[in-house]
Fold:
Amino acid sequence: MKILVPVKRVLDPDKADLVRIGSDNTSIDQGNLEWKVNPFDEYAVETALRLLENTATGEMRGELLVVGIGPEEATQQIRWCLSMGAQRGILVQARDEGLDATVVAMILAKMVEEEAADLVIMGKQTVDGESNQTAQILAEILGWPQATFAGRIVASPDLARATVTREVDGGNINVTITFPAVISVDVRIVTPGGVQNNVSPPDKPYDEGPRYATLGGIMKAKKIAVETMTLEELGIEPSPLVHTLSFSLPPQRKAGVILETVEELVLKLKEEAKVL
Structure:
């Protein structure tokens, strides 16, 4: 089996307090921030590894291909995924400003065709755009079944199908899909029992969260050549449907006040907040 996992570089979400709007009001000042793999995409890489590997023997039952779309610098995030255990990495060179969910889905559909992938696993959304559209659009283009918001995957031993627990408003829904398919994953997919491939021994659960890259994995990843492709080679001319007009920071909150009595509170709620 060949699993394709798209990965995007995003500005470090743990340092959101350092975000500053650029002077043109249509971009983010990147001076105080560093790039990371989108967390949900990292969960997708971990999911693919858990589906393919046999923890009893250490063997991989297929190939994990990581595809990044962006400038040359995005190679760094692809190499991080290679150090986790992915076998191949491809960078499709493109400008971030020319990408939206539809353009990315079109690129991925071409990559699926070029690579004859059997399964696409991706993060449910990116932490910068937050659109949560790419997986759905990709499945529509490919004509493949899809299972979004996956919090648990139980695959058949031959990796021909899987039962996916989808996290939805009000609870969970179990759906069974046959491969090829598109699956987008949520954070609970990387709990110890989030992925079961029915080949690895059940008495050896995974740790919580995605695996860390080991020193050996990092050294091995450095020796793997990251392939590059252009949009022209894929026959795609980007025409994004979504355009950023401007960014603005939320208004600052007014300082709080300390009230001495309940009567004062009721009065403020009535006259200032106007909720009574």
Notes: The mean pLDDT is 93. The chain has seven helices and 16 strands. The chain has one domain: 2-249. The radius of gyration is 22 Å.
